Amino acid sequence: EHLANQIAAGEVIERPASVVKELLENSLDAGATRIEIEIEGGGIRLIRVIDNGEGMDEDDVLLCLERHGTSKIREDRDLAAIATLGFRGEALPSIGSVSHMTITSRPAGADLGTEAVVAYGKLVKIHAIGAAQGTRFEVAHLFGNTPARRKFLRTVRTEQAHIEEVVKNYALGSPETTIVLRVDGREILHLDRTLSLQQRLARLMPAAVPLLGVGDPDAGTPPPRVFGYLALPEATLPAAARLRLFVNGRAVRDRMMTHAVIEGLRGFLMKGRNPAGMIHLIVAAAEVDVNVHPAKHEVRFRHSRDIHLLISEAVARAMGHYQQ
Ligand code: ADP
Ligand code: MG
């Protein structure tokens, strides 16, 4: 069991940013409207994620430490239509197997919360404790027991940059959640839930303003639906500016979607330049397979060509309006 967790950790938990990603997804799945992320030493020394989501009682806390202890798949057929971000029940046992992990959680309505301490895969303590509603994860000494993996990590700065990337992706994927990021005690990102998606992107990519509005942001329109904001093709952007893609709120990498954006911009984007900004795609859960890779960056569409056309046409239309 412990070995299985460590093996899974090798697949799912590559680096500190993978921990942040899994914890953020869980907080979002728990319906949090506010998430604070704190990291120290590039996330190797400490990662702390605090949310105001639904919380867990003692049984939930014990369950979440078990492999496949997910609360998110209730029947087999759910696998075909996965709506939540996480669904494998592998993340927490994996993280716990390669770190010192402390979970503190309290569901609404309970007087006391629960605190559990796991050290390299072993539950060393679980007890009742006063706690705010929601959940708090602390992950310390990441890969302390797997020196090979630890050695594989880059500098603190690089790991920190990866974490910032992940946090920015989720900040854009879930604009209805306040997201705060503190690095070594310094607040470097604070995106309030009152900001619009456009305002969020403008904060993260100030050089890209004014942004080109793409598609139909009206949540009432039935899927498939595409919306987003792109930097104008002539904008001068820092080298790090990139195109962020989301499918049903989940950050993904997808060649087809990127290609569709480039095609929509065709004639305007100078050769050799990459598009920047963000594109959200909302599709029916049954139209997309997110179960391609444990790290879940990749997706597979049932009607890939239709999606390509939807995106490229929306981008082309936006460019057409802008030109006039
Ligand atoms: P998965 O997300 O695939 O279900 P995880 O290992 O990431 O698997 O989490 C296991 C379970 O722990 C979740 O299904 C959920 O019930 C619970 N959980 C984890 N994080 C939180 C959180 N921040 N708030 C509430 N419940 C949580
Ligand atoms: Mg999860």
Give the arrangement of secondary structure elements.
Elements: H1 2-12, H2 16-29, E1 34-40, E2 46-51, H3 58-64, H4 91-97, E3 100-106, E4 113-119, E5 122-129, E6 134-140, H5 147-152, H6 156-173, E7 178-183, E8 186-191, H7 197-204, E9 211-215, E10 225-231, E11 243-247, E12 250-252, H8 255-264, E13 277-282, E14 288-289, E15 300-301, H9 304-323
Parallel strand pairs: 1-7, 11-13
Antiparallel strand pairs: 1-2, 2-6, 3-4, 3-6, 4-5, 7-8, 9-10, 10-13, 11-12, 14-15
Helix pairs in contact: 1-4, 2-6, 8-9
Bound molecules: adenosine-5'-diphosphate and magnesium ion.
Adenosine-5'-diphosphate is lined by residues 22, 26-27, 30, 51, 53-56, 64, 69-72, 86-92, 135.
Please tell me about this protein's structure.
There is one protein chain. With 324 residues, the protein is α+β, with helices and mostly antiparallel strands. The chain folds into two domains: 2-191, Histidine kinase-like ATPase, C-terminal domain (Heat Shock Protein 90, 2-Layer Sandwich); 206-323, Ribosomal Protein S5, domain 2. The chain is 31% helix and 26% strand. The chain is built from nine helices and 15 strands. Strands 5-4-3-6-2-1-7-8 form an eight-stranded mixed sheet, with helices on one face. A five-stranded mixed sheet has the order 9-10-13-11-12. It has a two-stranded antiparallel ribbon with strand order 14-15. Strand 7 (178-183) and strand 8 form a beta hairpin. The longest helix is centred in the C-terminal third of the chain and has 20 residues, at 304-323. The chain is elongated. It starts with a helix and ends with a helix. Mean pLDDT is 89; it is low at 76-87. The site of magnesium ion has 5 residues, from helix 2. Magnesium ion binds next to helix 2. This is DNA mismatch repair protein MutL. It comes from Desulfoprunum benzoelyticum. Belongs to the DNA mismatch repair MutL/HexB family. Keywords: DNA damage, DNA repair. One of its GO terms (cellular component) is mismatch repair complex.
